[in-house]
Design goal:
The protein has helices at residues 2-9, 36-51, 67-73, 77-104, 109-123, 160-163, 166-180, and strands at residues 137-141, 148-151, 155-159. The protein has 183 residues and is mainly alpha-helical.
């Protein structure tokens, strides 16, 4: 939903968040852009909070019961104002993407996880109890281009297209593993 709202607000992906548009296209809203700077700032702050927090299995992502109210209460009033008339469509977009991911991911996620493990082995990362515990979080997002971004130290945002392409996936991930696990 966050990426949908970014596109809806007309915020340039090159300026905030992963620098790639969503797939499929989201029509930018019409109307005044006088609050564009505020929305860009609020969106960037919200996105950072979503992608840099601990997303380990022990601390699952908590989805607020009422996102609009949550945005207003937590300092994102322009985003809440933008989201209000488009909430149904944004929710539908998010649910459709989640369903698509659920349906297709079983065909490629196990292979990508094996490839990450192989990259870690090649990097010399030990799985011994004395090794410092670090975790890589991979967040799949429906972007037009097969790309990946490292955010928050060990969180990787990867486009759906990239996760489906083994060679490209390894090409993007190898340098990220080097950054996350320096020798």
């Amino acid at each position: 939903m966050a990426l949908y709202l970014r596109e809806l607000a007309g915020v340039n992906p090159a300026e905030v968040g992963p620098n790639c548009r969503l797939e499929p296209d989201v029509k930018e809203r019409t109307g005044s852009h006088s609050e564009h700077g505020q929305i860009k700032q609020e969106w960037s702050s919200w996105w950072d909070s979503l992608t840099t927090r601990d997303t380990s299995p022990q601390t699952p992502v908590q989805v607020p019961d009422n996102l609009l109210e949550w945005l207003e209460v937590n300092g994102y009033p322009e985003l809440a104002r933008l989201a209000r008339p488009h909430y149904g469509q944004a929710t539908l977009f998010a649910h459709q993407h989640a369903e698509d991911f659920e349906r297709r991911s079983q065909d490629y996620i196990p292979d990508r996880m094996d490839e990450i493990e192989q990259l870690l082995i090649e990097r010399g990362i030990e799985h011994a109890p004395v090794a410092e515990e670090k975790q890589i979080n991979v967040i799949e997002v429906p972007l037009k281009e097969p790309r990946a971004w490292l955010t928050g130290g060990s969180t990787i945002l990867a486009s759906s297209a990239l996760l489906r392409d083994s060679t490209a996936f390894q090409g993007f991930l190898q340098p990220m593993v080097t950054i996350i696990f320096p020798i």
